[in-house]
Amino acid sequence: MARMKFLCDAERCIECNGCxxxxxxxxxxxxxxxxxxxxxxxxxxxxxxxxxxVACMHCSDAPCMAVCPVDCxxxxxxxxxxxxxxxxxxxxxxxxxxPFGAPQFPQAGAFGLRGKMDKxxxxxxxxxADRSAAEFEKYGRNRLSEGKLPACAEMCSTKALLGGDGxxxxxxxxxxxxxxxxxxxxxGWGTAYGPGTPGARPPAAPQGRKS
Amino acid sequence: MKRPLAVVAALAVLAxxxxxxxxxxxxxxxxxxxxxxxxxxxGNAPLTYESQxxxxxxxxxxxxxIRARQMGQHEDKRIYQ
Lengths: 211, 81
Fold this sequence. Notes:
- The complex is a heterodimer of chains A (about 210) and B (about 80).
- Chain A is of the alpha+beta class.
- Chain A has helices at about 20-25, 65, 95, 135-140, 150-155, 165-180, 190-195, and strands spanning about 5-10, 35-40, 50-55, 75, 80-85, 105-110, 115, 160-165.
- Chain A has one domain (about 5-180): Alpha-Beta Plaits (2-Layer Sandwich), CATH 3.30.70.20.
- Chain A contains seven helices and eight strands; from the N terminus they run βαββαββαββααβαα.
- In chain A, the strands form four sheets. In chain A, strands 1-8 form a two-stranded antiparallel ribbon.
- Chain A is globular.
- The relative contact order of chain A is 0.19.
- The mean pLDDT of chain A is about 85.
- Chain B has about 80 residues and is mainly alpha-helical.
- Chain B has a domain at about 55-80.
- Chain B has helices at about 1-15, 60-70, 75-80; strands at about 30, 30-35, 35.
- A three-stranded antiparallel beta sheet of chain B has the order 1-2-3, with no helix packed on it.
- In chain B, β2 and β3 (about 35) form a beta hairpin.
- Chain B starts with a helix and ends with a helix.
- The interface of A and B includes residues 65, 147, 162, 172 and 176 of A.
């Protein structure tokens, strides 16, 4: 059984916010709601700055599901945590329970009224009929039903953000870490544009060094 | 007399210990996940104007399509072919 997960490679993320933009555009997320965002530590410190893209991690034992008083969450066969906005009362318990700050609440009006919770759906829509206008309006695009992966991961220019079955994503990341060195070769020209010469092989993993 | 009682009580506690566990594996029953209506991703037909291919309702073929898509994120597999 597939367990859909995100994995962000802090060595590759360049804080371009392309994933954030892709998510906003693909799902037409309203102003003030960020289903995905890029977090940077040691900002501006040369050599110590690291960025990571964060959204709903689709937890195997999701705390938001545990605390929801109206039980509006559900989990699909693919391990994607979704919620029903028709049941959500916008109480905000899930926001406090989530360690990643994934649940978002649109605010409108002079007093900042809290609306229904909105969060990353792994581009899997919601309870409404797949690819319907109602589903798009409430939850955004349903790319999984189109045989695609989330827009944020698929359009990541440095492939820092990986999305998909946890086992596959972990394998991709493991092979990458075993092979790569440090510095520009982590996401250099060859990675972006290919080897240049037909039939070339990827660089061998350095001996006796762990990345 | 007290010891057998204590053993029985301990066994009773052990017997119900798992009752508070939330079901971790989702089940799809009558078009619903845990009571919330939704459809499964592989139940839809591929979009006609795109290259994705799977048989509607066949989970294995859909997963093959998704796996191919996932491997597109692997530069070594995508570039060095």
